[in-house]
């Protein structure tokens, strides 16, 4: 898998740094030990954050700035990491979907980066390009139907969009049978060390909960 950052993204966020984790995994419908980790993070956030202060987390604040620079309202189309933590702070439970999706959500709230998790066998071609959504570009968000991605950062494979920081695409979503996982970490704050730590954290979670050797990861910018 190759990942290319377009000039459009470089223009609005020259400091962008991303990480791609590529791993062979075994998915399961539910993992109780993983949810103990998730609950611990949720309790920590409820003690330390508010729905206003979470916007000041560097990784979230940077993503919001890029949304505005691309022409999108980050309060209407919230980055996924912000939306997940906000849900926790509102006293709601995180959605339980399957182990891989739950794991990616944990990695996102733990570091504040919006992270895309994909069934890599559903990609068309071997290259993903990070660009900006265009007017009228078709995009079906997971569980959201058709959404307007104009002005949103978007990863595209050969035939179209697969992921934005707000919602990944139905076409390449993780299922219980997903065997080949690709995870993309979006570091709009330019903090390579923290992006690497997030990638290595995901590898550790995959070893613990998905019968995986953790796979490999690479940095792209």
Task: Describe this protein's structure.
- A four-stranded mixed sheet has the order 1-4-7-8. A four-stranded antiparallel sheet has the order 3-9-2-10.
- The relative contact order is 0.26.
- It is globular and about 40 Å long.
- By secondary structure, the protein is α+β, with helices and mostly antiparallel strands.
- Helix 2 runs parallel beside helix 5 and helix 5 runs antiparallel to helix 6.
- 35% of the residues lie in helices and 22% in strands.
- The protein has helices spanning 7-12, 32-48, 58-70, 80-89, 99-111, 192-209, and strands at residues 2-5, 17-24, 114-119, 127-132, 140-141, 145-146, 153-156, 161-163, 180-187, 216-220.
- The mean pLDDT is 97.
Write the layout of secondary structure elements.
Layout: E1 2-5, H1 7-12, E2 17-24, H2 32-48, H3 58-70, H4 80-89, H5 99-111, E3 114-119, E4 127-132, E5 140-141, E6 145-146, E7 153-156, E8 161-163, E9 180-187, H6 192-209, E10 216-220
Parallel strand pairs: 1-4
Antiparallel strand pairs: 2-9, 2-10, 3-9, 4-7, 5-6, 7-8
């Amino acid at each position: 898998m190759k990942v290319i950052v377009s000039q459009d993204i470089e223009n609005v966020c020259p400091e962008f740094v991303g990480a791609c984790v590529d791993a062979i995994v075994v998915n399961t419908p539910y993992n109780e030990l993983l949810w103990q980790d998730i609950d611990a993070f949720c309790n920590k956030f409820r003690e330390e954050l508010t729905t206003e202060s979470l916007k000041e987390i560097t990784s979230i604040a940077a993503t919001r700035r890029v949304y505005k620079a691309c022409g999108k309202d980050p309060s209407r189309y919230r980055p996924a990491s912000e939306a997940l933590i906000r849900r926790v702070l509102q006293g709601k439970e995180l959605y339980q979907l399957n182990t891989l999706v739950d794991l990616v959500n944990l990695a996102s709230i733990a570091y504040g980066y919006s992270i895309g998790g994909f069934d890599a066998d559903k990609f068309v071609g071997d290259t993903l390009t990070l660009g900006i959504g265009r007017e009228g570009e078709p995009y079906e968000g997971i569980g959201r139907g058709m959404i307007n991605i104009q002005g949103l950062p978007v990863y595209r494979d050969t035939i179209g969009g697969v992921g934005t920081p707000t919602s990944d695409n139905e076409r390449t979503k993780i299922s219980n049978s997903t065997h080949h996982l690709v995870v993309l970490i979006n570091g709009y704050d330019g903090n390579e060390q923290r992006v690497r730590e997030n990638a290595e954290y995901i590898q550790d979670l995959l070893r613990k909960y998905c019968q995986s050797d953790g796979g490999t990861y690479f940095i792209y910018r």
